[in-house]
């Protein structure tokens, strides 16, 4: 198995984290690599953004796609896609999708944000 890192480290802290990740995350040869996402992805809410793909060695056959707003770089959605075919799932089939439609900050534990 090869080892890989998905970070282009710039600071000494991120270089340390990238080196630690490079030493601990196994890479399967069939993985095309991380960070290779679509330049125009659509979340479950129909909004367009840029996608970053993430592969997990502990969950082979699934690619997690994080979708970010192109201007603000806020996370707007997540999608899970099958990368390998099985008896009941085709490669490329979307397994799950999420859209983040609202964010809020509250000042008390257990308090719900106003939704009106």
Structural commentary:
The termini are far apart. The strands form two sheets. A five-stranded antiparallel β-sheet has the order 3-4-5-6-7, with no helix packed on it. The chain is mainly beta. Mean pLDDT is 76; it is low at 1-12 and 21-33. It has one helix spanning 12-24, and strands at 2-3, 26-27, 41-42, 48-55, 62-68, 75-82, 94-99. Helices cover 11% and strands 30% of the residues.
Which short descriptors sum up this protein?
116 residues, mainly beta, 5-stranded antiparallel β-sheet, 11% helix, globular
Number of helices: 1
Mean pLDDT: 76
Order of strands in the sheet with the most strands?
Answer: 3-4-5-6-7
Number of strands: 7
Helix content: 10-25%
> Main β-sheet, in a few words?
5 strands, antiparallel
Q: In angstroms, what separates the terminal alpha carbons?
A: 52 Å
Poorly predicted runs: 1-12, 21-33
| Gross morphology | globular
Task: Draw up the topology in text.
Elements: E1 2-3, H1 12-24, E2 26-27, E3 41-42, E4 48-55, E5 62-68, E6 75-82, E7 94-99
Write a brief structural summary.
The strands form 2 sheets. A 5-stranded antiparallel beta sheet has the order 3-4-5-6-7, with no helix packed on it. A two-stranded antiparallel sheet has the order 1-2.
């Amino acid at each position: 198995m090869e080892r890989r890192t998905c970070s282009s480290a710039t600071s000494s802290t991120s270089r340390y984290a990238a080196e630690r990740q490079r030493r601990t995350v196994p890479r399967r040869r069939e993985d095309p690599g991380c960070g290779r996402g679509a330049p125009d992805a659509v979340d479950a809410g129909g909004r367009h953004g840029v996608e970053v793909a993430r592969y997990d060695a502990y969950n082979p056959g699934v690619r997690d796609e994080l979708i970010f707003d192109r201007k603000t770089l806020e996370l707007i959605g997540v999608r899970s896609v099958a990368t390998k075919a099985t008896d009941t799932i085709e490669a490329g089939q979307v397994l799950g999708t999420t859209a983040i439609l609202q964010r809020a900050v509250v000042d008390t534990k257990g308090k719900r944000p106003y939704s009106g």
